[in-house]
Amino acid sequence: REALMATNETLKNRKRNKKLYGFHTFGDPGCPIDHLSGPFRDNIREFLRECGEIEDYNVEGMPTWCTHLVNESNGVVVPLYTVEENVKHSSRPFCDHCRCAGWSHHFVSKRRYHLIIPSDGEWDDQTEGSVYDFHSHLLHGLIHCNGYGHLLCINGLEGGSEFLCGREIMDLWDRLCTTLRTRKITVEDSSVKRSMDLRLLYGVAYGHSWFGRWGYKFYHGSFGVTEHNYEAAIRVLSSLNIGNVLEDLGRESRDKLVKEIVQVYREMSDTQLTTIRDLIRFMLTVKSRAPVQRKVVTKPPPPAKAIKPRKSLKKNNNPTKYKKFKSFVSEMDSRWPKRRLEYAAEVIVEALKERQGGMSRQEVRDAARLHIGDTGLLDFVIKSINNYIVGNYVVLRTLNPSTRVLEFTINEVNSPTIVDSDEDEAIVESPPITDPVGLDVYQDAKCLYHEVLEEYPESELVELATRVVLDSKHLVKEWIFKDDEEDVLLRFLCQLLMTPDECEMKKGNRPLPQGELVVVPPYATVGDLKIACEEALKDTYCIMKGLTVDEIEGVDVMNDEEVLFGSFESGANVWVRGSGMDLESKLTYEGGSDSWTVDCSCGAKDDDGERMVSCDICEVWQHTRCNCIDENEVVPTLFLCSRCCSSIMPALGDYKMDMEYY
Questions:
Q1: What is the pLDDT of residues 37-94, one digit of tens each?
Q2: Same domain for 232 and 159
Q3: Beta strands at 20-22 and 62-70: parallel, antiparallel or unpaired
Q4: Which of 112, 268, 293, 523 has the fewest CB atoms found within 10 Å of its own CB?
């Protein structure tokens, strides 16, 4: 921390005579600029002229400005860098983020603006060429000069910052987007806290993701998930009745800790907590703090009691009986032979013995994959092995108090004679758990997250709903184009009508690109509007650098000298015709010049950013997950989709072969 403060002092001295702005007010109406009434492409230039200080270096040849923001609460000076990327000279002229957002049909913009707050330790360093790829920035937003953009990363206290929390950074970003008049901003919500996906946790609690408080909404899902699917999944999860949950968990002896958590927070709440939404929402409002005082309803109230420490899940810490895994698999009806299940369990235990410490679920899976190729088998055994004895060890899954991550561990059974006997159960001493319920709200929430949302017993509906929410991570916020009634300026949304040759260039039935905002004085003429539309399109898109606007649709009877006022209503769409588009340009669409087709069995018809594989016959792209190719598996050298397999191979009859695994 001292090193960071020294760095900040250096930054203050180096910029002593420069402009400083308040971090928490920057971007408010009138602060620092109160006349940004034009489109984003003009507003960002005005913003940099007024508030940015050009640096004496550049990033990959791109000019860089710095705006200095003072955190009013602690006096820390935070640098906000703006890098103007000229697409024509960029090594990456096409935007992958647009492609994943469904904006492949957008024309390639001439300029992109990267707004970056580096991580704490890099505030006094020059931004480098690889700055675009860093995921450690406190803030990184990319906005095309047409006003469409992407929030690429937000990192607050959880991401390593000592001075700014995620909410403060997000507030700043939202104010900047509003002030600069952006049009649409997307974000891929992969935010995690204590290994919990916040889009699931907040979705259950509030009906929207963490970004929803700033107006970001469902845009499109992965794997064919629709907004209707998402809303239905949220209803299923949030309406789970707590009483029913405890009853279902009780059938598997997993309800004791959950029951204690429910009891503690019900006693703390002034209102009745009936559903999982009620419970998790209340927990998130409490937040982490010192041991919470339980409410006492007797009168007069005695002194409040601190919450008792979390006890062991076993009564009175007596030795606990654990069942043998081989007995468990012998009683169940599985598509895998008993010996294969036992072998997979033995491989997992050997991996845990080699580690001599806790392993996360993914670490266990990766280690076992070195010996077992059937990922479905592994996932089933990993999910089932908790609290069972394998060989001379009992496998447990508990929360690591340091990392707050659920980890698998093994305890050696002290009585080999019991383990080697024909009995189905063995007795094992278990150490007590001493963390108090209510001391760390997120730890308690994580228990509910795991037991209810991730591992709800025998409920395909809950499992499906959870998967749908996790597959809904593409969000968007739109700033609706509307005319300001108090502003005398005239605003129009200019849309270019394409000629037959230009339409032929528009491969794959792409939708028409979005229109551009133009602003003209109140007594502008038809000719002035033509010039404004032409300049706006030429200034924004690579393909239109030689464009000439010849006419405006619907004003054939008006000449160029006639005044618009009274004939055109401000805020209307304006369609123009012209010539001079560069049809040979490689910088046409943000999706690139390649023509490819997505048609997956899940219903996806466009690239959603998930891992895909193309069929070697029809060249149609499909998700690897939908074709049972695990994320950790290498894509096959030769891949045929199910449709092509059916067309070139005769239908196979039912063919079954029972094989014992040795």
A1: 889 999 999 999 999 999 888 877 889 999 999 998 888 999 999 999 999 888 889 9
A2: no
A3: parallel
A4: 523
Of 572, 567, 565, 571, which is closest to residue 521 (Cα–Cα)? 565
Packing angle, helices 227-238 and 276-286, rounded to 10: 80
pLDDT band at 510; cut points 50, 70, 90: low
Q: Which position has the token pair 């009564």? A: 315
Domain boundary among 402, 428, 454: 428
CA distance 261 to 425: 29
Please provide residue 229's backbone torsions phi and psi, each rounded to the nearest 5 degrees. Answer: -60, -45
Q: Are 202 and 210 in contact (CB under 8 A)?
A: yes
Q: Is 196 a member of any domain?
A: no
Give me the pLDDT at residue 591, please.
81
Q: How far apart are CA 91 and CA 129, in angstroms?
A: 11
Same domain, 501 and 635: no
Are residue 29 and residue 85 in the same domain, yes or no? yes
> How many C-beta atoms lie closer than 10 Å to residue 298's C-beta?
6
Which strands form 425-428's sheet, in the order they lie side by side?
406-412, 393-399, 388-390, 320-324, 425-428
Given pLDDT bands bounded at 50, 70 and 90, which one contains residue 149?
very high
Is position 189 within any domain? no
In a domain, 662, yes or no: no
Question: How does pLDDT run across 445-479, given as a tens digit for each residue?
Answer: 998 999 899 888 778 899 999 999 999 999 999 99
Residue-wise pLDDT for 187-239, tens only, equals 999 888 888 899 999 999 999 999 999 999 999 888 889 999 999 999 999 99
The shares of helix, strand and coil residues in the chain, as percent rounded to the nearest 5, are 35, 20, 45
Question: What pLDDT shows up at residue 607?
Answer: 79
Q: What is the mean pLDDT of residues 365-383?
A: 82
> How many domains does one find in the chain?
5
CB contact burial 23-53 (16+ within 10 A = b; e otherwise):
beebbeeeebbeebebbbbbbbbebbeebbe
Last residue of a domain, one of 530, 551, 579: 579
Q: Based on the domain organization, do 145 and 231 belong to the same domain?
A: no
Domain co-membership, 8 together with 72? yes
Q: Is there a cis peptide before residue 500, judged by omega within 30 degrees of 0?
A: no
Sequence-ordered list of residues with C-beta below 8 angstroms from that of 142, at least 6 positions apart, any chain: 95, 97, 112, 113, 114, 115, 149, 150, 152
HSE-CB of 508 using CA atoms within 13 angstroms? 14
Condensed to tens digits (0 to 9), the pLDDT of residues 471-496 reads 999 999 999 877 666 678 888 889 88
CATH number at residue 603: 3.30.40.10
Confidence class for position 338, pLDDT limits 50, 70, 90:
confident
Rounded to the nearest integer, the mean pLDDT of the chain is 80
The CATH number of the domain holding residue 536 is 3.10.20
Q: Which two tokens stand for residue 445?
A: 């929430």
* Residue 651: predicted pLDDT: 45
**What percent of the chain clears pLDDT 70, i.e. is strictly above it?**
79
If asked whether residues 320 and 302 sit together in one domain, one would say no
Residue with tokens 């007596």: 318
Residue 354 in domain: yes
How far is residue 75's CA from residue 392's CA, in Å, rounded to a whole number? 59
Contact by Cβ (8 Å): 296, 304? yes
Same domain assignment for residues 9 and 125: yes
List helix spans (H) across 407-525: 416-419, 441-448, 460-470, 500-505
Q: In terms of residue numbers, what domain contains 528?
A: 490-579
Same domain, 35 and 157: yes
